[in-house]
C-alpha cells in the first residue's frame, strides 16, 4: 500500500494529472516514491505511444499535426516542471560564474535570456525528432517511444541517490534525504522486465540496448557535470537532466529510425 502511495506522490509532483488527495510525506513514502520513478516514466511513455498511434492510425490529421500534438503532450503532461529546471540550470551555467553564484541564480524566480534560448532549442529539437519519426512509424517505434521517459526517470533516480546534494533544501534534497542508494536495486528488476517485454513483443534487443546505452552515457555526463558546475545535485539540475536525457533519447531513436529500421 505504501508503494502505491509513493507512486501517486510521484504523479502529483511530476505530472499535471489531477490527484486530489493528500499523502503522508514521511521518509517511508518518499523512499517508495523514488523507487517508483521509472514506473512513472513508463506511464508517461505509454500515454505518448498510445496518443501517437491513435492519431497516426485512426485520425485524418497529417503527420505534422500528429507530431505537434504529441510534442504538446510531452510538455503539458509534466506541467513543465522539468522544463523549469532546464531553464534555471541554463541560466546558471551560462552565467559562467562560480558554483555559489550559479546556485543563487537558480534560486532566482526570474528567467534570463539564456534560459529562454535554451528551452527554445530543446523544444525545437524534440519537435523535429518527433515529426521525422511519425512519417513512417513501425511497431518498434511505439515501444521505444515508451522507453524514453522510462529511461529518463531511471536516470533521475540514479542521479538523485548517487550525487551529493549541492544545498540542504529544496525538492531534490527532500527526496534524497528520505531514500538511499539501496533503493535503486529495484530499478534492475524494472529494467530486466522491460527488456524481456521488448524481446517478446518486437524482438528488438539491439535497438533497446542502444537506447539504454544512450541513457547510461547521459547519466555519466550529468554526474560529472553537476559536480563540476554546481558542486552537487539540486532539483533544478535533476529537471535539466531529465529534459537533456529525453532529447538525447529522441535523437537516438531518430537515428535508429533512419539507419537501422529504414
Automatic annotation (TrEMBL):
It comes from the Bacteria. The chain crosses the membrane at residues 39-58, 64-83, 111-131, 143-163, 184-202, 208-223. It catalyses: alpha-ribazole 5'-phosphate + adenosylcob(III)inamide-GDP = adenosylcob(III)alamin 5'-phosphate + GMP + H(+); alpha-ribazole + adenosylcob(III)inamide-GDP = adenosylcob(III)alamin + GMP + H(+). This is Adenosylcobinamide-GDP ribazoletransferase. Belongs to the CobS family. Its EC number is 2.7.8.26. One of its GO terms (cellular component) is plasma membrane. It is an enzyme of class 2 (transferase). Keywords: Cell membrane, Cobalamin biosynthesis, Magnesium, Membrane, Transferase, Transmembrane, Transmembrane helix. It is a multi-pass membrane protein. Its cofactor is Mg(2+). GO terms for molecular function: adenosylcobinamide-GDP ribazoletransferase activity; cobalamin 5'-phosphate synthase activity. It is found in: Cell membrane. Pathway: Cofactor biosynthesis; adenosylcobalamin biosynthesis; adenosylcobalamin from cob(II)yrinate a,c-diamide: step 7/7. GO terms for biological process: cobalamin biosynthetic process. Its main location: membrane. Joins adenosylcobinamide-GDP and alpha-ribazole to generate adenosylcobalamin (Ado-cobalamin). Also synthesizes adenosylcobalamin 5'-phosphate from adenosylcobinamide-GDP and alpha-ribazole 5'-phosphate.
Amino acid at each position: 500500500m505504501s508503494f502505491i502511495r509513493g507512486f501517486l506522490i510521484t504523479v502529483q509532483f511530476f505530472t499535471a494529472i489531477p490527484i486530489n488527495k493528500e499523502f503522508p510525506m514521511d521518509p517511508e513514502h518518499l523512499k517508495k516514491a523514488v523507487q517508483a520513478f521509472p514506473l512513472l516514466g513508463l506511464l508517461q511513455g505509454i500515454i505518448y505511444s498510445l496518443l501517437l498511434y491513435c492519431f497516426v492510425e485512426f485520425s485524418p490529421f497529417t503527420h505534422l499535426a500528429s507530431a505537434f500534438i504529441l510534442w504538446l503532450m510531452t510538455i503539458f503532461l509534466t506541467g513543465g516542471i522539468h522544463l523549469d529546471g532546464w531553464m534555471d540550470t541554463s541560466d546558471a551555467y551560462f552565467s559562467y560564474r562560480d558554483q555559489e553564484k550559479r546556485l543563487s541564480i537558480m534560486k532566482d524566480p526570474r528567467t534570463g535570456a539564456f534560459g529562454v534560448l535554451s528551452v527554445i532549442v530543446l523544444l525545437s529539437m524534440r519537435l523535429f525528432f518527433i515529426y521525422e519519426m511519425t512519417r513512417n512509424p513501425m511497431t518498434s517505434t511505439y515501444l521505444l517511444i515508451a522507453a524514453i521517459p522510462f529511461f529518463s526517470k531511471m536516470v533521475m533516480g540514479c542521479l538523485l541517490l548517487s550525487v551529493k546534494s549541492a544545498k540542504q533544501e529544496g525538492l531534490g534534497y527532500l527526496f534524497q534525504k528520505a531514500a538511499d542508494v539501496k533503493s535503486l536495486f529495484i530499478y534492475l528488476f524494472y529494467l530486466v522486465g522491460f527488456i524481456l517485454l521488448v524481446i517478446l513483443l518486437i524482438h528488438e534487443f539491439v535497438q533497446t540496448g542502444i537506447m539504454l546505452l544512450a541513457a547510461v552515457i547521459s547519466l555519466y555526463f550529468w554526474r560529472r557535470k553537476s559536480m563540476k558546475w554546481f558542486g552537487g545535485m539540486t532539483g533544478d539540475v535533476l529537471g535539466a537532466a531529465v529534459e537533456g536525457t529525453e532529447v538525447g533519447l529522441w535523437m537516438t531513436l531518430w537515428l535508429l529510425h533512419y539507419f537501422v529500421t529504414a
